[in-house]
Design brief:
Layout lengths: L5 E9 L2 E11 L4 E5 L6 H9 L6 E8 L9 E4 L11 H5 L1 H6 L5 H10 L15 H15 L3 E5 L7 H14 L4 E5 L3 H7 L2 E6 L2 E5 L13 H21 L1
Parallel strand pairs: 3-7, 3-8, 5-6, 6-7
Antiparallel strand pairs: 1-2, 1-4, 8-9
The structure holds adenosine-5'-triphosphate.
Length: 244
């Protein structure tokens, strides 16, 4: 799979109010870029702009793929709200993309992914019969099913308990290894485990942070990973205190 990098330069407003400060971000091809920052700063807006669905925002700038081709049809976004269709089962939700595009469904691949996210015994259930964490795993399976070169993840593991979260991080890192990933997270340990690049989005713009050495997913007990986690948390706290 040819997974392009992304160059993003610009800012966005809604009705004249800033919803994303002016930033320049290079998302490395085949890398896993983690984006942290305070609530309301514009992280989801950035993902929606790259996905081409931020119709509500006025964007000024440029968004380009490193191979020069259009990003259209090459991006999958897992948004913060799971957007599962309530009248479809987990299996039908996971196969929804193919159905919407009029393509042949792949039930065996869907079943394998549903099994990998730990929902095999829930595959026939509707979203309102699932817990928040189960819904999030169903949405993750649907995103992985799309298998696009560029994957945008908006707090994909936020509703999961610590053990399941670590398992889903491992699974996602394995399945998305050749892809270009941009992930929003509030969790410094997640960024330290998974990021090949780490950026903090703040009022003043982006601040880049060195990722720990080694390929993700890094062990939760890895010393350099723990050190990065601690330093990131301290920096985020410092930024919050500076803003208050
Ligand atoms: N439809 C909308 N109309 C007006 N303002 C909006 C709209 N959607 C988002 N905003 C505003 O845009 C800003 C950025 O929102 P965004 O969801 O991108 O932030 P975020 O960094 O992802 O926050 P969080 O971490 O809480 O998810 C916020 O101030 C929000 O109130």
């Amino acid at each position: 799979m040819n997974s392009p990098g992304i160059t993003f330069e610009g800012s966005a407003t809604i009705a004249g109010a800033s919803v994303l400060p002016r930033i320049a971000l290079d998302v490395a091809a085949g890398g896993w870029t983690c984006l942290l920052g305070p609530s309301g700063i514009g992280k989801s807006t950035l993902l929606r702009l790259i996905a081409g669905i931020a119709d509500e925002a006025e964007f000024s700038g440029r968004i380009e793929a490193s191979d020069g081709a259009s990003l259209g049809g090459r991006v999958a976004l897992m948004s913060q709200s799971d957007l599962l269709l309530p009248w479809l089962s987990v299996t039908e939700n996971v196969m929804l993309g193919a159905r919407l595009r009029g393509e042949a469904p792949e039930p065996a691949r869907a079943a394998a992914l549903i099994d990998e996210v730990g929902l095999a015994s829930h595959a026939a259930k509707k979203p309102d019969q699932l817990s928040g964490g189960q819904r999030q795993r169903a949405a993750l399976a649907r995103t992985l099913m799309e298998d696009r070169p560029v994957i945008l993840l908006d707090e994909p593991f936020s509703a999961l308990d610590a053990r399941t979260r670590a398992q889903m991080q491992d699974l996602t890192a394995r399945l998305l290894a050749p892809h270009t990933v941009l992930m929003v997270t509030h969790d410094p340990s997640e960024a330290a485990r998974l990021g090949t690049a780490i950026a903090l989005l703040e009022e003043g713009g982006l601040r880049f942070w060195p990722a720990p050495p080694g390929a993700p997913p890094r062990a939760v007990t890895d010393a350099a990973t723990l050190e990065t986690q601690g330093a990131l948390l301290a920096s985020l706290r410092g930024a919050a205190e500076g803003a208050s």
